[in-house]
């Protein structure tokens, strides 16, 4: 992916438009604030505890864009004309490889922005872009994994057209319970 990609999810009658763009070093302060949330820390593999962690994480996302195997987007919401858009989430396309028919998606939403369709709208946008941008490389379907008790994530998967494909065995220590594998085809 040579050119930086910016995507949008249109506004709804009750929620502003979303802007999806690659993460930047300038996002670190907001990123670390969002990572204070215990639910986010519970469901993400690497809790970020300070500016150094945050910058390392952003650099890893930049590296993913450079190597072409991982494409993470900061999700921003326009809070009003007078203030800059605020960080409300993250969506990522990962495990992309030329000739590989599947890749994986992931997401989180900042605690104060949950329950307003941010994850599902951002995921819809990421999904459409991914299946289109990598079709010529052989991408045919996307996988979405969550632990069985992450009901909000399961609902996001369903709303975004990722049908439940199979139940996976536990993978401790990170995932001590069964998992759901959801799939969405092009
Ligand atoms: C999962 C997560 C991304 C959802 O983000 P969001 O922006 O609130 O998602 P949406 O608003 O698009 O949809 C959430 C849906 O889950 C539902 N939901 C939320 N909590 C729920 C619960 N405890 N039980 C059942 N449904 C629940 C909401 O009602 C909503 O469904 P609806 O639109 O039919 O009412 C967010 O909770 C999060 O960031 N969690 C921590 C990180 C995480 O779990 N990431 C996914 C790892 S697989």
UniProtKB/TrEMBL annotation:
PROSITE patterns: GNAT. InterPro entries: Acyl_CoA_acyltransferase, GNAT_dom, Ribosomal_N-acetyltransferase. It holds the Pfam family Acetyltransf_3. Keywords: Transferase. This is RimJ/RimL family protein N-acetyltransferase. GO terms for molecular function: protein N-terminal-serine acetyltransferase activity; protein-N-terminal-alanine acetyltransferase activity. It comes from the Bacteria. It comes from Actinoplanes xinjiangensis. GO terms for cellular component: cytoplasm.
């Amino acid at each position: 992916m040579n050119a930086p990609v910016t995507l949008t999810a249109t506004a709804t009658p009750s929620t502003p438009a979303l802007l999806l763009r690659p993460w930047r070093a300038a996002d670190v302060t907001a990123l670390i604030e969002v990572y204070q949330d215990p639910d986010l820390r519970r469901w993400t593999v690497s809790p970020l505890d300070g500016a150094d962690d945050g910058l390392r994480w952003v650099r890893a996302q930049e590296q993913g864009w450079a190597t072409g195997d991982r494409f993470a987007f900061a999700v921003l919401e326009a809070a009003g004309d007078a203030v800059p858009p605020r960080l409300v989430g993250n969506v990522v396309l990962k495990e992309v490889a030329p000739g590989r028919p599947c890749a994986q998606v992931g997401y989180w939403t900042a605690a104060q922005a949950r329950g307003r369709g941010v994850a599902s709208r951002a995921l819809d946008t990421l999904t459409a872009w991914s299946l289109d941008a990598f079709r010529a490389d052989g991408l045919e379907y996307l996988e979405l994994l969550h632990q069985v008790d992450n009901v909000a994530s399961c609902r996001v998967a369903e709303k975004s057209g990722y049908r439940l494909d199979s139940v996976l065995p536990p993978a401790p220590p990170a995932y001590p319970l069964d998992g759901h594998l959801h799939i969405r085809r092009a």
